Amino acid sequence: MIPTVPQSSVLKWSYRAYVTLFFVYLALPLSVVCVFAFNNSLFPSLPWEGFTLAWFFGTEAPFIGVFHERSILRAIGTSAFVAVWVAGLSVAVGTCNAFLFVRHDFRGKGMLYILMLLPLIIPGVILGISILVFASSVANTLEDATGLWFDGLRPGLILVILGQFSFITTFATLVISARLQKFDQSLEEAALNLGATRWGAVRQITLPFLLPAITGAGVVAVLMSFENFNTTLMLVGSDSPLTITMFDKLKHGSTPVLNAVSLLLIILSATLGVLSLIFQRSKNEK
Question: Which whole-number Å values give the CA distances from 141 to 92, 137, 159, 178, 193, in the listed order?
Fold first, then answer.
């Protein structure tokens, strides 16, 4: 509607300047981080000492590149492991939640929907502490009753996965629900009239329709898992994901190797986002 409203030239140029400054504000910090990943210096700051790829491929101290930094590589593997589990659980539960909230009416539906949205409102630190206290209380009770050690309820990867799953599932539910609301249920009814079972109709017709949203939700879940810090910090054990490892290294002094890791994450995020958009567009065109 805004472009159709009569505007003066001053207002048009002001709007364009605002949009330009907004995107510069978003892109400039990321650009600075990326540029200093190639600085031939021990510190990610000016002056510029020359171009180098040592912070990616270097093998000799102090220029140990990200591809030869064992702690970074181990943390990337840990984050990938956590992200795959979180994405799988979030998409599966989010799909079930979408069918529950879109297709069914029951007593307490509104309250249950609000409870699902609560993790988006609660700060990540509070959410992590709450999960840690609850899990520790359950573990202590079970250990006192059985004499066994319940390692999965102590700080570690299982709690990290559950902690991230607790709020990323909400995003997956919202994404998939928005797609499901556009579905024409008469297609399922036609399949049922032709002899298909309820599950067969959902599997052959509804789930393929939801596939772009499910894929998008999975990509979002992976990216959110990789970048999560607050909740993960409260629940992490000896195996640290990438964000925690980078934070620990930053406490001992920043080097451009962290800029190199950040650049790789930016490339990964952009690649996943573009592939997701291409996949969704191809599915929508079909």
Answer: 30, 6, 17, 41, 53
Amino acid at 25: Y
Whole-model pTM?
Answer: 0.84
Instruction: Dump pLDDT digits (tens) for 29-73.
Output: 888 888 888 988 888 877 888 888 888 888 887 888 888 888 889
Residue 167 near residue 231 (C-beta atoms within 8 A): yes
| 3-state DSSP percent of the chain in helix, strand and coil, to 5 | 75, 0, 20
Rounded Cα distance between 183 and 162, Å, is 31
Specify the amino acid at residue 151: D
263-272 LR contacts (CB < 8 Å, sep 24+): 263/33, 263/34, 263/37, 264/66, 265/226, 265/227, 266/30, 266/33, 266/34, 268/226, 269/223, 272/219, 272/222, 272/223
**Rounded Cα gap, residues 28 and 76, in angstroms:** 26
